[in-house]
């Protein structure tokens, strides 16, 4: 047994040199599971919201010589309440014809489901998701229904976004809660005629 003691001590010393590398490779920097870095989580959520195209529909646009760009003063505030939607031409949306139309700002969409308006995703308590819990947000994305029970309408790709991990959806939620609240009462959907 005494002959093995130096071998075990040497082995323990060598392994201890590699522990920091093993912890770093685990992806959590050696932190205990369940602990998150809030600023890293928000940054990850911002990245996911950007590459997932959330701004494409939920952020009003400014029109420039290069085309529409996100209006940085109204990020993720949904369809502007003051914008009037033109009437949908009759018989344009039907089987064998167009499947949908959208406004130039890409915040209102018409299709067989009627007319849908992009929701306000800012943390405004009255007009956005400021009153939603993290659990309610994740459930909404996973089930395709708001906490009040209304379906998430096209073009919202909840069927695909709902496949994100809990970690990713929590990061998106953290990012959305970190942006400035914007009061903007998005119109209710218009059912098909």
Please write out the topology.
Elements: H1 4-25, H2 38-51, H3 54-58, E1 61-64, E2 67-70, E3 101-102, E4 108-111, E5 114-117, H4 134-143, H5 158-161, H6 166-178
Antiparallel strand pairs: 1-2, 3-4, 4-5
Helix pairs in contact: 2-6, 4-6
Would you write up a description of this structure?
The chain has helices at residues 4-25, 38-51, 54-58, 134-143, 158-161, 166-178, and strands spanning 61-64, 67-70, 101-102, 108-111, 114-117. The chain is α+β, with helices and mostly antiparallel strands and 193 residues long. It has one domain (37-178). The chain is globular. Residues 5-33 have low confidence and may be disordered.
Mean pLDDT: 84
Kindly state the number of beta strands. 5
Query: How do the strands of the widest beta sheet line up side by side?
Result: 3-4-5
Task: Indicate the overall shape.
Answer: globular
Task: Give the uncertain stretches in residue-range form.
Answer: 5-33
Helix/strand-derived class?
A: alpha+beta
Order of helices and strands: HHHEEEEEHHH
In terms of DSSP E residues, the strand content is 5-15%
Give a concise summary.
The protein is 35% helix and 9% strand. The protein has 193 residues and is of the alpha+beta class.
Q: What are the defining features of this structure?
A:
193 residues, alpha+beta, 3-stranded antiparallel β-sheet, two-stranded antiparallel ribbon, 35% helix, 9% strand, globular
